[in-house]
Each structure stands twice: as structure tokens, then as C-alpha cells.
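Friendly challenge for the regulars: who can give me the C-alpha cells for this chain first? No prize, just bragging rights.
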Amino acid sequence: MFQIKNLKNLPVYTERNIYLGKVTKVKLDKFSNNIEKIFVKPSNIVERIFRGELEISQNQIISIEKDKIIVKDLKGELKKPIFEPIYE
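First reply, four minutes later:
Bragging rights claimed.
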């Protein structure tokens, strides 16, 4: 069993072991007290600036472990950099 306060700053990985960032906030359902979504601060500074925090809903969460959270792979998001290098 985990406590909500222990989720803050927990690293978040996809099922393919891609590091997404750390949990900043947890939103609970006001009736059931179950996790509704988690907010993740992206590890990449460019993504932080242009996309802000990631919102991951409870149905995307695969498991919550003592040392990390595992979520479903994103469909095409965050797999490629936002900007491609420019070669002259």
C-alpha cells in the first residue's frame, strides 16, 4: 500500500522503460479518493518549456511501485525530439 504523499518526485517510466520525468502533483477523485491523474514534470527542458507538465490519467497507469511508476507507452508522443537538428 502506498501513501499519496510518497508519490511526489517519484520517477515515471513507460512500459518500454522510457523515462518521462517526476511526479509533481496527484489529483484524487473527490468521492472515491482514488487517483484520477498524476502530473509529471518532463525530464527534457525543451519539452518542459513547450509542453508543460504531462497529465497521465489513472487508466494509463500500469503499476505504482515503491521506487517508480510505470505507465502505458505514449502513442507517438515524446518518442521523437520536438526539434530536429539543423545541418548546414
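Residues 17 and 70 are 8 Å apart (CA to CA). Confidence is low (pLDDT under 50) at residues 78-88. Your move, everyone else.
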